[in-house]
Design brief:
The protein is of the alpha/beta class. Helix content is about 40%, strand content about 10%. It has one domain (about 5-350): Metal-dependent hydrolases (TIM Barrel, Alpha-Beta Barrel). The protein has helices spanning about 25-35, 70-75, 100-115, 135-145, 170-180, 205-210, 210-225, 225-230, 245-260, 270-280, 290-300, 330-345, 345-350; strands spanning about 5-10, 85, 125-130, 150-160, 185-190, 235-240, 280, 310. It has an eight-stranded parallel β-sheet with strand order 1-2-3-4-5-6-7-8, with helices on both faces. Helix 3 (about 100-115) runs parallel beside helix 4 (about 135-145) and helix 4 runs parallel beside helix 5 (about 170-180). The chain is globular. The model has no long low-confidence stretch (mean pLDDT about 90). Bound molecules: zinc ion (ZN).
């Protein structure tokens, strides 16, 4: 592995079943999970009984994707020449109402990732999954797992309990900044609040398309509440957000900031500049024109070639074959997205990737 090998910033391991976490749960919580008959937490994001959104060639005989480190490396790293991949485990811990239970399952999930994935392949890194309902417990989990340099990021869903920038979340950002961990904000939710502002959508299609609006709301909250001013060394990575909405969003926020900035005086620089310096976005799903001209125009509108990070979003079905990188991306931008930008974003990759 060299620093010229691509770095995949968003891949998803699958928890094979709730019982896989039992060895990593404290005895009290393991006994409760069994006695109370907890159901699987894999499918809260999908309509009941629908299959997980996964490419057909990445399913095993039972329909499950990404079930072992060996499989993930063979399917998500080898075909793309990837040297390092960051695991973002999307499991339904956020759906639990009990703060203690959520903290216990996040702890078990992170330990399961360390032992069943990171210990099995030196090319793998991971994000720390944290409880959303209690920032103090989230900080405890960050402190506990940050001692392991293979954990390179803190993972939050874009739509959790409250808008991301609210003060109650600030201890999480302080802990992340202290340990040089970006906060990775991934599409998803605690599913206690609809993705729209006025109620629940009627289809998964509507929910997934609207995730982009959720990301805009999250950025607005982080900007307006002053998170970027309060935590000057914090980087935020948007994952599975799409990218083509960004220029219009930056223009809109900057335009209204010019007239309304007295209300949020801590936003002292033009918002577009702050976002270009402090926010990164993973590249799948890539929702922009695939031709070179279209991509050049998009990059000019974004105004930076340092914001995009290569990702396959494995095993989700965002592209076919090995076309993880849109065909119109220039060789120079390709290298930036695959190597330079991830290394600049993730301090711990700079320390641990040889
Ligand atoms: Zn993803």
């Amino acid at each position: 592995m060299t620093t010229n090998a691509p770095i995949d910033c968003d891949v998803h391991p699958t928890v094979p079943g709730l019982s896989a976490l039992y060895p990593y749960l404290d005895e009290m919580w393991r006994e409760q999970a069994i006695r109370r008959g907890f159901d699987e937490l894999n499918t809260i994001a999908y309509p009941a009984n629908s299959p997980l959104s996964v490419r057909a060639d990445w399913r095993d005989a039972a329909g499950k994707p990404a079930s072992t480190a060996e499989r993930l490396v063979a399917e998500a790293l080898v075909p793309f020449g990837t040297g390092t991949a960051i695991l973002n485990c999307l499991y339904g811990t956020a759906s639990m109402f009990s703060e203690d239970l959520q903290a216990a399952f996040c702890k078990a999930l992170n330990d399961w990732i360390a032992h069943e994935w990171l210990d099995r392949d030196a090319r793998l890194r991971a994000s720390i999954v944290v409880p959303l309902t209690n920032a103090e417990m989230a900080v405890t989990e960050i402190e506990r797992r940050a001692t392991d340099p293979r954990f390179v990021q803190v993972l939050l869903p874009v739509s959790g309990e409250v808008p991301l920038g609210r003060r109650q979340n600030w201890p999480i950002y302080a802990a992340a900044e202290r340990h040089h961990l970006p906060v990775g904000v991934h599409a998803g939710s605690s599913y206690r609040h609809p993705v729209t502002g006025v109620g629940w959508p009627g289809s998964y299609t509507e929910d997934y398309v609207n995730q982009a609006v959720g990301f805009q709301s999250a950025l607005s909250s982080l900007l307006a509440e002053g998170v970027f001013a309060k935590f000057p060394d914090l980087t935020v990575v948007l994952m599975e957000s799409g990218v083509s909405w960004l220029p219009a969003y930056m223009w809109r926020f900057t335009k209204f900031w010019k007239g309304l900035r007295s209300e949020i005086p801590w936003v002292s620089d033009p918002p577009g500049e702050i976002l270009r310096e402090r926010v990164r976005l993973t590249s799948q799903p890539f929702d922009a024109p695939p031709d070179p001209g279209g991509i050049d125009r998009l990059m000019n509108q974004i105004g930076s070639d340092e914001m995009l990070l290569f990702a396959t979003d494995y095993p989700h079905w965002q592209f076919d074959g090995d076309a993880a990188m849109p065909a119109g991306v220039s060789p120079a931008l390709r290298h930036k997205m695959m190597v330079e930008n991830p290394l600049r974003t993730y301090a711990r990759l700079r320390e641990t990737v040889p």
